[in-house]
């Protein structure tokens, strides 16, 4: 219906009063839109999405493929080979083949890269923020894509604003708009402001804009524009694109490429000069040049870059299946080298399902029964149920619990669920168990102002109008207009109290009472409970915004509330796995020392007697002092986000590779500084997600460990196929160089055959090796140095050793085959020896692929079906190789000759020696390590 839809014309929303704006958009501040309105508007305005510009253009990705120095060298080889062929009057087959393979390789690289970019983009959209909105009179959580003009959305600190909107209500709202205006300082926003039409964007203080970040406060916002109609949508440059960074490994591969190309050019020069000197003239120059060209092609691992890209992309997919979402590709690799994981406690190591167990006031300690968020349970004193309303200080404390609270408790789909902070949810449940209901009390004592919670302040206060309610301790003469309720870390709240409530009396707090409260706090924390302190204060006037330090003083102490947040059952095992894997787990929490220590001990992160360092101690330490101790401390308590930054810096200066979790707005710097910044998918703020390398979709510590395992597997597999590919390249080069040296006429392998080997017979099995399942010991060994050279830990020596074995086998076969095919009476082409060399090299690589699956276990000890791709790749490649030597058109194209059954059997026999050699190497290594004990 036309009359039901809001105007589609451009409205200057900042000039309208909030009520007027609601009217224009036919919405309601209390109940928001109806489901039907939302459906209609979604159809009319489309989803709230920015049309992303593609990361890199198609042409740019394609062009990048040709920037590879190895491909450039191949093109050089093609040109020289074409000149040689044309001069001798033959068809420039090799040149055409090389060119087509260069082009094909570029296309393959292009397809893989654009797929990887798309996959990353899709993963990124998985992390699209959730927004709290009011619809049909209820608070609901929706994906930001589903917002429509007219929606009433709720903002709080840490949220990234998902659409443009007019403020309906705001409290201490500060928004960082640097993404839009370039202004780094957060802007303070007000709902009631009425502005001129020409007010510039940065001064429209009654509006919020998509893409900006709420730094502090809360607000209720009427969505005015979504998708491309937002201010952000207008600025095309602000569109976020997927970051396509080169991973450290890809960088190292580029360097490797340079070394190989340089090396092969030197080899070419040596062979040509050496040959000319040997013959004393230029008669064999062309043949030498051909040998050199083949060597140049042989040394380049043409298939490697593509295999690496695919491996990393597959790694991210496996990780997302295990609930770890990679936002930056290099993280896949870095994860494999993590030495220290710094984790938050609440929600990551614990379940974040809080249940209040104890309430402690001056006169009594109440036990509270019940499970989860169900408001069913009783208050007990000495195991006897009591009625909470009989205890006056308890009543006031419960009112503080539910009013100094931003969460909501709702009954949905047969269960009680909370929206907001679980700590606050538990307090609502506590109140409800005593019949103290938030809605009723919020009407009696409406909130007029607040000092919001932050991890630095570790407390929050709300100020309520007290016209309908006077605390029991007030006398008729007290000029009470407002009541302030404060909750937070007990030590901090107690410091700010001057009195305490005892029944219906106020008593000045003496030193003894303070010591008693702190002692009680320690006892509760020592049992692993998360403890909050509560206080209140009557006020005659409304305090100014930002006067928190002055106002939150002279408070009246009410009591302590202790809630249980049990450790996640899987976290203990994950910590043990880390220990076995040489990874140290460090707990960094805003919570109390004893709570932190108890939970850390339960999880095996700390041992009894281990030192716990507090935020206060960190404040007194220099970075150098922290650096000296940082390797010994496993628990940090009562820390603020800036301490996290110090800890990461100290760890990094000790050479540790640090993964660090964070969820708040102010955790962003520490997340950026860490080698792997990890944000929480469920409870994390958008700002922290934006700063992270990886997002835990389930907020679970065990997921970090799972991702680390995947990272290690990826890195091991990459090293495995580099060994595999480069070993064979060295074998090829040596074989080709040997032919003229031992006086065999002709080049054993043509450039075309070499390309075939490097791309197909090496490439396919290498791809299959990329999905090799993790070795059982992958989490039972220490992490590797991320700076280590690509040739470290025996990779370089393996390549040379295996390359030589390859060459020795093939040269032996080559010498025999040359003699055999040149013997009198041999009735087929004397060049058949070349096909035997070609085939032996290919088949030997199949044996190599099967044997290299494990460094330590023999092939017969492995389940052949645990990597079916490898079986498939080896079978397919062998068939393709046979087609090449038995199908006439392919024979012509690849210059091969058919082999007799005996010749083929001899090739198989020589190739099998390669497999045997690697298995013998494993046995030797085992024997050696057994001897060393
Ligand atoms: P972690 O850092 O492991 O997530 P945490 O939740 O204890 O643990 P913060 O969120 O920084 O860390 O909280 C610090 C302290 O502030 C808490 O230990 C608690 O005493 C207090 N606190 C937490 N939430 C609130 C809240 N909603 N209102 C008032 N005080 C709070």
UniProtKB/TrEMBL annotation:
Q: Which SMART domains match?
A: Cation_ATPase_N
Locate the Cation-transporting P-type ATPase N-terminal domain: which residues? 12-86
The record describes its membrane topology as: Multi-pass membrane protein
**Sorted UniProt keywords:** ATP-binding, Cell membrane, Membrane, Nucleotide-binding, Translocase, Transmembrane, Transmembrane helix
Database matches in InterPro entries? ATPase_P-typ_cation-transptr_C, ATPase_P-typ_cation-transptr_N, ATPase_P-typ_cyto_dom_N, ATPase_P-typ_P_site, ATPase_P-typ_TM_dom_sf, ATPase_P-typ_transduc_dom_A_sf, ATPase_P-type_domA, Cation_transp_ATPase_P-type
- Pfam families, alphabetized: Cation_ATPase, Cation_ATPase_C, Cation_ATPase_N, E1-E2_ATPase
According to the record, the segments passing through the membrane are 66-83, 259-279, 291-314, 721-742, 754-771, 798-818, 838-856, 868-886, 898-918
Q: Where in the cell is it found?
A: Cell membrane
> What's the chief localization of this chain?
membrane
- Annotated family: Belongs to the cation transport ATPase (P-type) (TC 3.A.3) family. Type IIA subfamily.
NCBIfam families, from UniProt?
ATPase_P-type
Name the record gives this protein: Cation-translocating P-type ATPase
Species annotation: Trichocoleus desertorum GB2-A4
Q: Where is the organism placed in the taxonomic lineage, from the top?
A: Bacteria, Bacillati, Cyanobacteriota, Cyanophyceae, Leptolyngbyales
């Amino acid at each position: 219906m036309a009359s039901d839809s809001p105007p589609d014309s451009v409205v200057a929303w900042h000039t309208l009063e909030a009520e007027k704006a609601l009217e224009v958009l036919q919405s309601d501040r209390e109940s928001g839109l109806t489901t039907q309105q939302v459906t209609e508007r979604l159809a009319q305005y489309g989803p709230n999405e920015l049309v992303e510009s593609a990361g890199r253009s198609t042409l740019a990705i394609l062009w990048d493929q040709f920037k590879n120095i190895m491909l450039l060298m191949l093109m050089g080889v093609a040109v020289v080979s074409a000149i040689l062929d044309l001069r001798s009057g033959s068809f420039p087959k090799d040149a055409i083949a090389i060119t087509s393979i260069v082009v094909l390789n570029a296309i393959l690289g292009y397809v893989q890269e654009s797929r990887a970019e798309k996959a990353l983009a899709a993963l990124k959209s998985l992390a699209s923020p959730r927004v709290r909105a009011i619809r049909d009179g209820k608070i609901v959580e929706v994906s930001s894509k589903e917002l429509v003009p007219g929606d009433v959305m709720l903002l709080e600190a840490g949220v990234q604003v998902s659409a443009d909107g007019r403020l309906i209500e705001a409290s201490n709202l500060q928004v960082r708009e640097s993404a839009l205006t370039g202004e780094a300082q957060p802007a303070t926003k007000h709902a009631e402001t009425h502005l001129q039409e020409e007010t510039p964007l940065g001064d429209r203080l009654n509006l919020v804009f998509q893409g900006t970040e709420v730094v502090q406060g809360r607000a209720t916002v009427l969505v005015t524009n979504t998708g491309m109609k937002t201010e952000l949508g207008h600025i095309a440059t602000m569109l976020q694109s997927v970051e396509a960074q080169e991973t450290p490994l890809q960088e190292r591969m580029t360097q490797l490429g340079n070394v190989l190309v340089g090396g092969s050019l030197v080899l070419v020069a040596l062979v040509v000069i050496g040959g000319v000197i040997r013959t004393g003239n230029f008669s064999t120059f062309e043949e030498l040049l051909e040998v050199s060209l083949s060597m140049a092609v042989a040394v380049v691992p043409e298939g490697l870059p593509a295999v690496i890209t695919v491996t990393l992309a597959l790694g991210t997919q496996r990780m997302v299946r295990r609930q770890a979402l990679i936002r930056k590709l290099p993280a896949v690799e870095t994860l494999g080298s993590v030495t220290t994981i710094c984790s938050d406690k609440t929600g990551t190591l614990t379940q974040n399902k809080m249940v209040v167990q104890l309430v402690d006031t001056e006169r009594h300690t109440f036990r509270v029964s019940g499970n989860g968020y169900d408001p069913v349970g009783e208050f007990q004193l000495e195991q006897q149920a009591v009625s909470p309303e009989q205890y006056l200080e308890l009543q006031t404390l419960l009112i503080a619990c539910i009013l100094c609270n931003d969460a909501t408790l709702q009954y949905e789909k047969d269960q009680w669920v909370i929206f907001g902070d679980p700590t606050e949810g538990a307090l609502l449940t506590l109140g409800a168990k005593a019949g103290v209901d938030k809605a009723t009390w919020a009407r009696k004592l409406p909130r007029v102002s607040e000092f919001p919670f932050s991890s630095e302040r570790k407390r929050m206060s709300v100020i309520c109008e007290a016209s309908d309610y006077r605390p029991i301790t007030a006398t008729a003469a007290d000029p009470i207009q407002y009541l302030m309720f404060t909750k937070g870390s007990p030590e901090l709240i107690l410091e700010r109290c001057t009195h305490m409530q005892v029944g219906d009396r106020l008593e000045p707090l003496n030193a003894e009472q303070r010591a008693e409260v702190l002692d009680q706090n320690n006892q509760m924390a020592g049992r692993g409970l998360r403890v909050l302190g509560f206080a209140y204060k009557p006020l005659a006037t409304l305090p100014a915004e930002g006067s928190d330090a002055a106002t939150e003083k002279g408070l009246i102490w009410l009591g302590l509330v202790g809630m249980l947040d049990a450790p996640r059952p899987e976290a203990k095992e994950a910590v043990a796995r880390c220990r076995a894997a040489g990874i140290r787990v460090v707990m960094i929490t805003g919570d109390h020392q004893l709570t932190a220590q108890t939970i850390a001990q339960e999880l095996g992160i700390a041992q009894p007697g281990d030192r716990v360092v507090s935020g206060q101690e960190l404040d007194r330490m220099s970075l150098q002092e922290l650096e000296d101790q940082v390797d010994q401390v496993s628990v940090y308590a009562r820390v603020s986000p800036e301490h996290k930054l110090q800890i990461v810096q100290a760890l990094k200066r000790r050479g540790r590779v640090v993964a660090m979790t964070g969820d708040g707005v102010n955790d962003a710097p520490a997340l950026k500084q860490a080698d792997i910044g990890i944000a929480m998918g469920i409870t994390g703020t958008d700002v922290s997600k934006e700063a992270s390398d990886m997002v835990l979709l389930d907020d679970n510590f065990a997921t970090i460990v799972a991702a680390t395992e995947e990272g290690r597997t990826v890195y091991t597999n990459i090293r495995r196929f580099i060994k595999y590919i480069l070993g064979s390249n060295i074998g090829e080069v040596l074989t080709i160089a040997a032919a003229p040296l031992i006086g065999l006429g002709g080049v054993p392998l043509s450039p075309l055959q070499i390309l075939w080997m490097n791309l197909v017979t090496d490439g396919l099995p290498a791809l299959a090796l990329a999905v090799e399942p993790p070795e059982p010991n992958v989490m039972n060994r220490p992490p590797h140095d991320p700076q280590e050279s690509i040739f470290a830990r025996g990779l370089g020596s393996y390549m040379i050793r295996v390359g030589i074995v390859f060459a020795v086998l093939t040269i032996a076969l080559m010498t025999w085959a040359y003699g055999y095919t040149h013997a009198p009476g041999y009735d087929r082409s004397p060049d058949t020896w070349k096909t035997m060399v070609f085939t032996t090299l290919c088949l030997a690589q199949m044996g190599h692929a099967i044997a290299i699956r494990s460094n330590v276990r023999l092939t017969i000890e492995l389940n052949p079906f645990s990597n079916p791709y490898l079986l498939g790749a080896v079978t397919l490649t062998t068939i393709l190789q046979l087609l090449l030597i038995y199908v006439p058109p392919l024979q012509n194209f690849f210059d091969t000759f058919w082999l007799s059954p005996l010749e083929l059997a001899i090739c198989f026999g020589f190739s099998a020696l390669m497999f045997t050699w690697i298995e013998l190497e494993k046995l030797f290594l085992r024997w050696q390590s057994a001897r060393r004990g």
